[in-house]
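As promised in the previous annual report, we have extended the structural survey to additional targets. Below is the entry for GNAT family N-acetyltransferase.
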Amino acid sequence: MSETVEIRNITAADYLDLRESMVSAYPDMAGSYWGETTIQRLIKLFPEGQIAVTVNGRVVGCALSIIVDYDKFGDNHTYEQITGYYTFNTHNPKGDILYGIEVFVHPDFRGRRLARRLYDARKTLCEQLNLEGIVAGGRIPNYEKYADRMTPREYIEKVQDKEIYDPTLTFQFSNDFTVKKILKNYLPNDEASKGFATLLQWFNIYYEKDSDTIRYNKSTVRIGLVQWQMRDYGSLEAFMQQVEFFIDAVSDYGSDFVVFPELFNAPLMAEFNQLDPAGAIRGMAKHTETIRDRFLEHAVSYNVNIISGSMPIVIDEVLHNISYLCRRDGTWEQYIKIHPTPGEVYSWGMKGGSEIKVFDTDCGKIGIQICYDVEFPEPSRILAEQGMQILFVPFMTDTQHAYNRVRFCAQARAIENECYVAIAGCVGNLPKVNNMDLQYAQSCVFTPSDFNFPVTGIKAESTPNTEMVVVADVDLVLLKELHTFGSVQTMKDIRNDLYQVVKK
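The corresponding structure token record, generated without further manual editing, is:
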């Protein structure tokens, strides 16, 4: 006969089944079962936190919970203290932690993943209530077999390494709980655990501390990439008209970011073509701060964050390749290309910057790397460890070989750093500008490679060598899920005990 399994909230009518299951679940703790008035009090205080699993209508297990203001208790508490000595007057609907006070399944129904269903239901409740996480004190019932030859810490480490099986702790580890602390005398009558317990915690990756404030970080971010056609504009004003056209167009789609390519203002170098290449690019650098200020005006008026591509700038007589983040709130920051290409060094005397940093925006944490920078994995890893969610890469490449170096490395950065990478490039040619003859580009948005993302790892891409825009949505929540539940977790599994990437 087939079984029907249901997860639902406990009712007062469930008590007899509940007591029978609990008595059977704890044969080594005689008399330790919940009284009927206690269950009724929990149901009255917090009905959605009392969860039952039924088989063919019979309650065979449960998960009981309260909400607490965890700072009032801290990590050094007992079971009696956290439950208000079983009065549950510690329950606070405005608290921040879902505290698990009981989980059990009747022994006749174990091995059917019923406890996992209870835990999943509790996690869902935690997410729905926007609580920071779940905390519980966990028994270590097999510890009595090893107490004469190892400490509780050693025992827990061996359970985690799967050298020892513990029916409670092994299950907690498999359900993404971590041991925050070892508690002594948490349940003094638990002789099997020798009075010790593990303080367990599960983090809600969807928790938003300021979820009700007006200014908040978006979960879905819209990116607009400008694949820029190189052409002779004749003047700075004509150039800026084309810039504004693309910002306007991308803004009309409700984009949060618009991204321009590397050195997309190179047509302005024609004004200085009578000079050698180094002199010409320094001449063009005189326009950079003016262009930045215009970008900032457009960011505010079109309500879009702008990655300004990159432009040459002279700082203390040294030539750099600089990109600006112009936020729609009127603030701006800058990033200087770290790795000039050999051609930039040889032809222009370009020098690299020295700062690796993540930028905060109203759409999460972002990084900027310029073209050749993305071909070095170490800076991207440092940015990822600082919380980067989207990496923007303005680039300019002349041949398909050069383009593929940028493309393949950018896609690798997305996979290894579990982030989105957006690249935007220039197309066409500039016959009247020395050292800027040909451009090849296909602008793209790359994703990590896992089930929640496109199988190709490509969210969107342009037609090669065609002036156009690419607009794509990226979901930052999917990154949180990947960090915690991904098939592989490259950021989590880094062997920091063996190697590290450290900025000097």
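Residues 212-216 have pLDDT under 50 and may be disordered. The chain is about 25% helix and 25% strand. These points will be discussed at the next consortium meeting with the crystallography subgroup.
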